[in-house]
Write a structure and sequence with these properties.
The protein is α/β, with parallel strands linked by helices. It has helices at residues 13-18, 28-36, 51-62, 81-87, 106-122, 135-145, 151-155, 157-169, 182-190, 193-203, 254-263, 270-277, 290-302, 319-326, 330-340, 362-371, 399-417, 423-430, 434-447, 456-467, 511-524, and strands at residues 40-44, 93-97, 173-178, 213-220, 236-239, 280-282, 285-287, 345-348, 376-377, 391-395, 473-476, 479-480, 483-484, 487-491, 496-504, 537-546, 549-554. The longest helix has 19 residues, at 399-417.
């Protein structure tokens, strides 16, 4: 494998180009935006699809205070000489990101927002020296730059900054706002939604009838419409994952992945990367998640034997799946099971969601999973169904997202079982009552959200989860005797232990014979022997599973 200088975690265009990092050319976005001639373009995409790097690239191209010709040498946009002469580094540019605006309450989040603007204003202190600046502008500017502006001043900060820049340069301003909806998403999660929404509405007045504005590009995850954040915006264009205009500029298309693999001399990983990180269908484009592709390639450079893993798994954004599952009713549960079995579901999707109404309907929940990249639109050949008007077929895009769903479901079950009354089940275990144990296990199985293809590890996790957190010590798949018993539950206070050997079958008719096989294995491999000296009571159970059914027998 050939080593590439892969920029994982770097979303600054200048840093990537100046330091020789590998860059997939997305500069065609510039021409597409200018061709539209929209005053405001809203681009919504899931996280980790390159929005921030795209905005950094736009800032480098337009900003009048930069000299970026060398940065764009050899890239697609550089071939448009007339366009570059007219636009490259010719316009005052304001670039601001709300990605870091977060807090457990409104005060702390608002403090972070004021620091974002203090930092932004400190980059433009030269404006205070301009002869056109009024005393009012100077006073307000200074307050904001010091992080002590009033709420009224903070709300008007983008209008003031663009106005002062137009005065200074004698040219209208390019405004770039990245992750505009993060503050309201975080506010909704922590319970101060209305307060933050009010502030963001004030800030985004800079997009409406702003005489200082040349054009604006705004990115986010959702298109917030019902709250009227964008109402009244002139010449407004929205570009979402259902459109086809800009989708090739966010994420990697197949030809780009082919080129990356060729440059890295690792074409043998093409199928792995496709199964794990491809599968997104945005507009007319099939798209890979760029964050994942680059992370995996970087890992392969350190360890050529590395297997694909989920690079989304440890991010806070995955809480949305847990939130979704927590609200699951029987309809949602069945659809989740279908999705995790590789099937499609048909849903109405609303792109104009509001964060405070996410859980107000089942359609909103599915829409949210779609718009945030946890589900994708199935291609025509992937579904045979005739779709109703306004509905689309949804599916899990790839192995990475399937892995996240499965991990979340296991954790949900572990947490949920602690709230369920398992007294009857525990009594059946310690009384050697396999009839009632079978009954209680089946009740619990019907309450689970099962997934994928009912492998044994699903049932091992199910078994262990029942006893975990209930005052018992639990070993799962630990070596015992001459083999490995699946789950061992210890009750040291009462001097007793329960050994479970689990099997699963693909035929309901074989539940009993499979259960007998499990009991036979406990005997043959002497699972109970090591406990004879330490425990007064040793109970051995064979369990056979078929989907959401089980049979328990005691040795």
């Amino acid at each position: 494998m050939k080593a590439l200088n892969i920029p994982v975690g770097i979303s600054n265009f200048e840093k990537i180009r100046n330091n020789g990092f590998y860059y997939v050319d997305k500069t065609g976005l510039i021409e597409e935006l200018l061709k539209t001639e929209a005053e405001v373009t809203l681009i919504t995409r899931p996280r980790r699809f390159g929005k921030t790097l795209g905005m950094s690239m736009l800032e480098s191209f337009f900003d009048i205070r930069k000299n970026s010709r060398k940065l764009f040498e050899g890239l697609e946009i550089a071939r448009q000489s007339e366009l570059c002469s007219k636009w490259m580094n010719q316009y005052p540019t304001v670039s601001v990101s709300f990605r870091q605006v977060d807090g457990l309450n409104f005060t702390s989040a608002y403090d972070m927002l004021t620091m974002v603007f203090a930092d932004l204003y400190n980059k433009h202190l030269y404006l205070l020296e301009d002869s056109h600046v009024t005393e009012f502008q100077k006073k307000t500017f200074t307050n904001i730059a010091h992080g002590c502006g009033s709420e009224k001043e903070v709300k008007s900060s983008l209008v003031l900054l663009t106005t002062m820049m137009q005065q200074h340069y004698g040219k209208a301003v390019v405004l770039l706002i990245d992750e505009y909806d993060v503050p309201v998403a975080k506010a909704n999660a922590h319970g101060y939604y209305n307060e933050m929404l009010d502030v963001m509405k004030g800030l985004l007045q800079a997009l409406k009838d702003n005489q200082a504005l040349c054009f604006a590009v705004v990115t986010g995850c959702l298109k917030i419409a019902k709250e009227s954040i964008f109402t009244g915006t002139n010449n407004f264009v929205s570009d979402t994952i259902t459109d086809s205009r800009l989708n090739e500029y966010f994420g990697f298309v197949q030809s780009e992945v082919d080129q990356i693999l060729a440059d890295a001399e690792t074409e043998d990983q093409a199928e792995n990367i496709r199964k794990w990180y491809d599968g997104y269908h945005f507009g007319d484009f099939d798209v890979y998640c760029p964050w994942d592709v680059m992370n995996y390639l970087l890992e392969l450079q350190h360890n050529p034997q590395a297997k694909p893993v989920s690079y989304w798994k440890n991010t806070s954004d995955n809480a949305i799946i847990r939130s979704f599952i927590d609200h699951s009713g029987s309809s949602i549960t069945k659809k989740l099971e279908n999705l995790m079995a590789g099937e499609t579901i048909v849903q109405r999707v609303d792109e104009n969601l509001t964060y405070d109404y996410l859980h107000s309907s089942e359609d909103n929940l599915w829409s949210m999973l779609y718009l945030t990249g946890y589900l994708t639109k199935a291609r025509n050949e992937q579904t045979d169904e005739v779709l109703p008007d306004g509905a689309i077929a949804l599916m899990i895009p790839n192995e990475e997202i399937r892995d996240i769903f499965e991990t979340t479901v296991i954790q949900w079950f572990d947490d949920s079982t602690r709230k369920w009354n398992r007294t009857v089940l525990f009594d059946a275990v310690w009384n050697g009552d396999s009839v009632n144990l079978t009954k209680e296990m089946n009740i619990l199985l019907r309450r689970t959200i099962s997934y994928h293809d009912y492998k044994e590890d699903f049932y091992h996790a199910f078994l262990a989860g029942i006893f975990t957190g209930a005052g018992y010590m639990v070993d799962s798949n630990k070596e015992h005797g001459e083999g490995r018993s699946d789950v061992v539950v210890y009750d040291p206070v009462n001097g007793r232990v329960a050994i479970f050997e689990a099997k699963y079958t693909k035929n309901q008719e074989k539940l009993e014979s499979t259960c007998n096989t499990a009991l036979q294995q406990i005997d043959e491999r002497l699972y109970a022997k090591e406990y004879e000296d330490d425990y007064d009571q040793i109970l051995c159970y064979g369990i056979s599973f078929f989907k959401k059914r089980c049979l328990v027998k005691k040795k």
